[in-house]
Specification:
Elements lengths: L3 E6 L3 H13 L3 E7 L2 H10 L4 E5 L14 H11 L5 E5 L4 H10 L5 E5 L6 H12 L3 E3 L1 H15 L8 H11 L4 H7 L6 H13 L9 H14 L4 E2 L5 E4 L5 E3 L5
Parallel strand pairs: 1-2, 1-3, 3-4, 4-5, 5-6
Antiparallel strand pairs: 7-8, 8-9
Amino acid sequence: MAIIKLLLVDDHGPLRNALREGLQATGAVQVIGEAATGREAVLQALELDIDVILMDVQLHDEKAGRKALSGVGAAVAIRRERPRLPVVFYSIQDDDEYYREFRASGILTHYAYVRKSNYLLPSMLVPLLRDAINGRSLVDPEIEDRVQEVRDLDEQSPRALLEPNELRVAELVAQGMTNEQIAARLNLHDKRAVSRTNGRIYAAWGLSETAVDDKVARARTTLIYTMNRIIMWDEDGAALVQDRKGEWVPLYKEE
């Protein structure tokens, strides 16, 4: 079999070194390049003659800060220039945002997405790399379950309960705008339309009965919109959210 020419992407230096040594020791892989950030991965993938990328999903980048590219984001950017370049993602992260980003990426073929803990040995990674190169795809069952959980959560998201104009008003409420400012921003002839829309938002999100006045309802609207999670408040005003088992638990834990 042909030697696999690999770009290795991981922000953890010691692990990256261990992976390089282990993969090359199999005799099946030649590490052509290495990167520690998503930006570096994109640059190298467009310059190097590689067959496949092995890439961590979470990639820290101090220079980019919050705009840092994840492994999935880097793969999307790379595939704009090199369509369906094979990528094997691996991760120890269990953050919904990574699964949400992967689901939204539209990556269909030439990939694998697995947990590091399930594919520790280089000999286990080599078949994944070859399958990705050959156009096949694999999602670790544990990750597939979590992607489905995120899909279910998104379908139940409070934003999905609003019509487009209501969602836009909720966004502007969350930005701290008054009804008058929102009416002006949306070029509404009657600013009372914003109040009526607010009422629809409160009803959709279960705030009509739990909020004692409009100021409280607006504050709670802001929290729900920002977190994009259904939140309910008990008689004492404590915020509750559903956990993965569907049970209502405190949003903020007391210390």
